[in-house]
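Supplementary Text 2. Reproducibility record for the structural model of the 196-residue chain.

All settings were left at their defaults, and a single model was retained for analysis rather than an ensemble. We include the record here because the model underlies the residue-level annotations in Supplementary Table 4.
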Amino acid sequence: MARPRRSDDTRQLLVEEGAAGFLVNGYHGTGIKQVLDAVGVPKGSFYNYFDSKETFGQAIIDHHSLCVQRNLAEALGAAPDPVAGLRAFFGRLMEEFVEAEYTGGCLIANLGGELEGSDVLRESLAGAWHSWRDGVAEALRRAQQSGAIRADIDAMDLADLLLESWEGAVIRMKIDRSLEPLQKCLRRLLDDYFRP
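Retained model, structure tokens:
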């Protein structure tokens, strides 16, 4: 495989630094200059990689979505069953929250609350959310087929419930600075309501 050109490396570094900034400071609180300085790129070079801050935001959302999809696939692939894979995936997210000292949370939810005025970014966020939801729904569908998860409710509806509850629990986690809301969310759904 050919090594990416330096410009591809720089673009990726900008996206990764931007994602870190957006997670902690939000879209509006993260300055382009701040990201460029952190990566060591001259200010005028930004437009060699992105047309605008909005297209930069799209690239960050796409990057985040791919990371979530990859992490979910890895967790599901390494687990003995789909429910264990979901637990591993959410467990990894909880580890990341602890490492970040309960700051940040979920990039999709954070930006969703901040960017309601941008149709372009809202559509990118919707696409990222649907990709995540679809992956979780597929795992739940497989768990339904094995009898581990109730089958009287569509897997897509269960995935929506799980992720929407999770996102609410992330807000509570940030307020309480504790994983207990997230653990409670998973217990109440995966160990109780979702069971046949």
